[in-house]
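Notes on consecutive records. When two proteins share a document, each keeps its own sequence and its own token line. Never mix them. Below: protein one.
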Amino acid sequence: MTAPFDDNPDSDLDQFDDGFSDCGQDNDHGHSDTIDDPWKYLESDARNGGSSDDGSSGDEPRVSVILPAAGESSRMGLQVRKPFLQLGGITILERTCRRMRETKLVDEIILAVHPDDLDNAQGKDWPTLEKAGVTMVVAGGVNRAESVWNALQVSDPTADVVAVHDAVRPFVSVSLCRALFKLAEKRGAAIPANPVSDTIKRIEGDTILETIQRVGLMSVQTPQAFRRSVLLDAFDFVHSTGGLSERITDDASMVEAYGLEVAVIHGEPYNLKITTRDDLKLAEMLLGSNLVS
């Protein structure tokens, strides 16, 4: 079995023509568990190129990728930080970088590491990182938003699109990445998401406070891609309205707070974020069964 989407770069957005078809069906009680017409964003001109009056060039976008990798990895409970764990003979980070490079749209990959790791990343570990495809390493901040900001400041100012991707999501497909990059250039911002299938409850201690209706709820993945100017404006807005903090759990939320629309396309079932030992075991199983590469 192949990866969840065919990695043919000539059909980037065609891959997603009916990606929400199953999710839009009624559930057991006759209610739809999906957002309204998410595919309205996949216009043919985003796929076929051509000039546009919306700020996009119409050509293939030049992309800067930021990989935040500055977390403590406390949930993994190991001495090695998650991106540098071995997975199928190479590190998770190498797999992630390789997938970004395979899009043929990425000009640079900026890695934001834990400040304690910066010297090693720029020194003895640099040849390995460079071989993996990393072009620059910066010190991460005290939270994800600060890490992304630190990397964004040294990114190529001529890039069309900046994509922020979890360094520990190594199985994202080339097709999904390319679709997001192109859609972000056209629409300003684009993210992948999947409908929530589990029942969601808000709890306090061991007591249920409420059951949250899941209609319209989506579980968001990465990469999250943005026209560079849009992401810079969103950061400027956040800096002026409270600063970067733990309240910012993803980059799209800043663009939303700034008042801009974020396009949504279907994510992938195997676009796994490896944050626990169980996730790592699952990733190894997926690799071993040839469901991913």
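Protein two starts on the next line and is unrelated to protein one.
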Amino acid sequence: MVWITAFFTENSSPKTGLSPTLTSYRVSDNALILNAIGMIEIGSGYYKYNFAAYDEDEEYIYVADGGVILSGAERYKYGGSAEADIKTIMDDVNDILVDTSTTLPTTLTTIEGKIDTIDGIVDDILIDTSTTIPASITTIDGEISIIDGIVDDILEDTSTTIPAALTIIDNEIAVIDGEVGVIDGIVDSILIDTETTLPATLTGIENKIDLIDTNVDTLLVDVAAIPTDHLELEALMGKNSVYEHVFDADHNHTGFIQYCYDSLVNKQAHDKATGLLYRFKFDVDYTGTNPTVTKKELMA
């Protein structure tokens, strides 16, 4: 059973004393369920109808007609069953009942366990804030003091040591700049030499080499013209040669000796037969047309 209500107005004011009728259709099959059924007045413009044949699994629409005494939008009231919404609400209510009897208690138990865990953590935090954290802060303070000392040293270095070192570096850079300038001048001179002086020097050397080469060529020609035989060479040198029979210590003939002489009395003789060289002492007489040579003795 469901009560269907309607509210009627006339000129925007609640209207009483009406005899409205109600017409309703079932949405699922478009069936006419109520056909101009009279409604009962409640009061203050409200009217009702007891829908005894209402099926909660169905959805309905209705039109309430206030009668010809009303006009325009005030005559008809429209509506429909909120079965779908009601069913959803009922399902939600049933879920809530289930939750309150099973899910919520379990969840509350879980929450209580987590609260206990959080409480333990908070206790540990309180211990840390009273002991561990202060000790850590003390350690940090000590390290900050050490860092502060290091920073002070750094500041001192930046105000004294580093500027002094920079001054030394600047001076060394100035010296290096001077040396670079000297080197640059030397390089410039080298470049000038490689462009002018060295080429000119090389040209002079090449000319001298050409002259030496010419002289060597001439010398080679002259050397080629020199006799290879020592007698011919001696004759070319203006020396005289004398042939003489040679005998050994047993008076055996050993061949001929050709020897040369000049103003010296000690000469070297060559034995053509044996190929031996001897040194002799001579007496030389230059008074005649041809010099007279007398061998005196064999020398060691």
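For the record: The longest helix spans residues 83-225.
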